[in-house]
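User: tokens in, sequence out, please.
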């Protein structure tokens, strides 16, 4: 197996700040503005809400440690694709085919693009409808495609600027909430709204739901709020000094995220009463701004959420486009040289376009209601499977049976942390299969387990693709497939597949 993609230093344009913002922008989208209300409904009390957010931060810290270990041991682009190929080498090519089908067919941008469309229209006081939301979403995603595909440096600068803007907004929320809690003039809760008393000891734990189902639902939502710590790993081939950078960037980004989540929750509960937070479907951030600055700030909040979502979209597209490029560099896809290329703008335009096209098709085809929520869940479940496979694989690398792999990365996570992360993903994999409690159905018309079945079926398609083209047809026609490394015009290496008739020696170089 190739351990590294050859990448000229001139193409390594991601420094520490950009790597931090790749992660920060990916993790924080709209969740911090809306999810506190959802978590409170599951936990029942303010105190249990904070317990859940802290437990979620611990899971995220464990996941960060696992990805930093892999990133330092295999400092090249691809993320889970690279790590699963390294661990699960037999049967040859099956792991890559399994991963490729997800990388190509799941529209990672579709959900965030629709959210951007909705809040952009809100900001301009335009009534959102299915058509105009999707038109705005299409324009947003196309803008991201063009700037990342044709203007790499400007795309990185804008992406970083949106991350710092998001950090500034969260800081404003935190400071405003603390000022309100401290009684600073100008930051008091307006007289027409209920003054909260969420931080007295009795009210802090009042209403705690001790039921297992409520706890499981709350933790499921919290853990997903932290997802994104792996984002810089997808583009490591373009990171300057990747080992040193990922060791610093990933922990720093996730510390920023954890502190932001906990601090913003303190601010929300300092300004918004528990009853208001639980009542209706209004997001926590909207209640916060209303209570301090008045209802006229709703449109300002829509602008903030739209820009936050734009940073999220840019971060997802940037890294997932490079995942498609890495799949092209493996040579297993049709038109692999096209996907592996950096032409014509010295950026992976083909990989970015593939992600954009599939996401826009998914967005256009998804009707409102169950189907849209189904797509959101469908895009989440494969991440659980990948995390389960790589954390379980990392535990295998520690065993004597894998001693020949000589796994000695510059950074090692504690084994207990890897076990904890593995078990947390077992939890995430099983929870969607548990029937929801009465009145808590996920979908109106679809079975609660439908997205799990479809997600697993997509992986099965990848295995079928491998069986037909890399096992059955070669056996039937009497040849075997080997990989040979070639150098592209842009100085980046990629693999090509060669068919070698059985009985002849390998004339192509297999992966190391």
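Assistant: Sequence out:
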């Amino acid at each position: 197996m190739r351990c590294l993609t050859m990448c000229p230093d001139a193409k390594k344009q991601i420094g520490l700040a950009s790597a931090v913002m790749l992660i920060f922008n990916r993790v924080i989208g709209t969740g911090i503005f809306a999810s506190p209300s959802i978590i409170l409904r599951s936990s029942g009390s303010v105190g249990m809400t904070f317990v859940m957010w802290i437990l979620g931060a611990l899971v995220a810290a464990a996941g960060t440690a696992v990805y930093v270990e892999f990133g330092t041991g295999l400092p090249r682009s691809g993320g889970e694709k690279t790590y699963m190929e390294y661990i699960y080498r037999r049967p040859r090519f099956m792991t890559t085919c399994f991963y490729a089908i997800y990388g190509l067919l799941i529209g990672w941008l579709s959900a965030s693009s629709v959210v951007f469309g909705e809040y952009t229209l809100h900001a301009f006081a335009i009534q959102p409808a299915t058509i105009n939301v999707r038109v705005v979403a299409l324009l947003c995603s196309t803008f991201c495609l063009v700037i990342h595909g044709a203007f790499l440096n400007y795309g990185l600068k804008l992406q970083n600027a949106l991350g710092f803007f998001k950090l500034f907004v969260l800081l404003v929320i935190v400071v405003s909430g603390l000022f309100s809690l401290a009684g600073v003039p100008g930051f008091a809760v307006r007289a027409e709204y209920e003054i909260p008393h969420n931080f007295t000891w009795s009210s802090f734990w009042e209403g705690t739901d001790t039921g297992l189902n409520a706890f499981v639902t709350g933790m499921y939502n919290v853990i997903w709020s932290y997802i994104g710590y792996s984002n810089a790993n997808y583009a490591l081939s373009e990171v300057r000094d990747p080992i040193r950078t990922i060791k610093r960037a990933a922990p720093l980004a996730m510390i920023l995220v954890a502190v932001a989540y906990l601090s913003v929750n303190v601010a929300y509960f300092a300004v918004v009463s528990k009853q208001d937070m639980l009542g209706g479907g209004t997001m926590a951030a909207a209640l916060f701004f209303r209570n301090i600055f008045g209802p006229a700030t709703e449109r300002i909040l829509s602008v903030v959420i739209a820009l936050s979502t734009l940073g999220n979209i840019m971060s997802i597209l940037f890294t997932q486009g490079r995942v498609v490029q890495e799949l092209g560099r493996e040579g297993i896809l049709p038109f692999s040289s096209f996907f592996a290329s950096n032409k014509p703008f010295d950026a992976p335009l083909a990989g970015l376009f593939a992600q954009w096209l599939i996401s826009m098709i998914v967005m256009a085809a998804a009707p409102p209601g169950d189907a849209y929520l189904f797509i959101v869940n469908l895009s989440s479940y494969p991440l659980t499977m990948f995390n389960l496979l790589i954390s379980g694989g990392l535990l295998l690398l520690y065993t004597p049976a894998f001693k020949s792999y000589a796994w000695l990365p510059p950074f090692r996570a504690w084994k207990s942390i890897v076990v904890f992360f593995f078990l947390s993903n077992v939890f995430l994999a099983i929870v969607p299969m548990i029937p929801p409690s009465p009145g808590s159905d996920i979908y109106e018309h679809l079975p609660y387990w439908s997205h799990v079945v479809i997600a697993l079926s997509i992986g099965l398609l990848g295995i079928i693709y491998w069986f037909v083209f890399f096992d059955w047809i070669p056996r039937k026609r009497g040849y075997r497939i080997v990989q040979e490394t070639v150098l592209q015009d842009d100085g980046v290496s990629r693999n090509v597949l060669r068919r070698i008739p059985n009985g002849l020696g390998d004339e192509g170089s297999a992966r190391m």
